[in-house]
Amino acid sequence: MQDHIVQFIDMYEEPNNEAATLLVTELCPLGSLQTRIDLSSPRMAYEEILHATLQVARAIEYLHCRKLYHSDVKPRNILIRRVRPTDVVLADMADVKPMGRRDRLHGTPSYYSPEMVASGRYGGTGHDDMWALGITVLGMLGQWPQVRYTKNDLDKYPRKCLDHAQQLGILNPGERMVVGLLVKLLAEEQRRIGATECVEVMEELCEKDAGAELEIKAPDEFRPASFW
């Protein structure tokens, strides 16, 4: 199994009681990436962002190469083994689906891609996972746009995130920067970066930007989502 997918330990079953089935996985004592994002101000450390993104991209690539997609990539489903050095795993593998399967949506609406919102179904490809990774990177950078959790606002949220990523790309030029990758993740489906290319970009960034600091320039009127 890929090293950055949560490790399966055991399974507990009760006869004639499917609801009692339990999967036992490795212990990740530091909680989820969502908690790490919530407690970081104004953003997570750049090196931590780089390594977490690379590790999740490798986990997604592992699935995609086996004609599977995760379907619910988000910070709450990324667990932290260690902080120094950064070591995270992609969890909640119960909803992994075979490529081509297009179920109705039941994940987290703020991570839906534009095409998911338009069709009301999963795309059946890996493109949805890459979009959700982009939204996750946006959160690690402290750049989540605000959203009200109404259907109308959630339906508009993918476009809001795409537009914000493009603005960040203009204000923070340079393909080397993680913002350059963000623009490729939060792009229209036909231009969205795939998992293998994402891994290659992140490996280069982790090598070139080791120890670097990151300053993000956002539009003057932008106010990020707050968790306090």
TrEMBL record:
Kindly list the biological process annotations in GO that this record carries: autophagosome assembly; protein transport; regulation of autophagy
Q: Which SUPFAM superfamilies match?
A: Protein kinase-like (PK-like) (SSF56112)
- Localization (cell): Preautophagosomal structure membrane
Q: Which UniProt keywords apply?
A: ATP-binding, Autophagy, Kinase, Nucleotide-binding, Protein transport, Serine/threonine-protein kinase, Transferase, Transport
Superkingdom classification of source: Eukaryota
> What is the first-listed, main subcellular location in coarse terms?
membrane
Topological type in the membrane: Peripheral membrane protein
The EC number on file is 2.7.11.1
- Care to name a GO molecular-function term for this sequence? ATP binding
What is this protein called in UniProt?
non-specific serine/threonine protein kinase
Q: Name one Pfam family in it.
A: Pkinase
Residue limits of the Protein kinase domain? 1-205
Q: Can you state which reaction this protein catalyses?
A: L-threonyl-[protein] + ATP = O-phospho-L-threonyl-[protein] + ADP + H(+); L-seryl-[protein] + ATP = O-phospho-L-seryl-[protein] + ADP + H(+)
Give me the Gene Ontology terms describing cellular component. Answer: autophagosome; cytosol; phagophore assembly site membrane
Q: What is the lineage of its organism?
A: Eukaryota, Fungi, Dikarya, Ascomycota, Pezizomycotina
- Native species: Conoideocrella luteorostrata
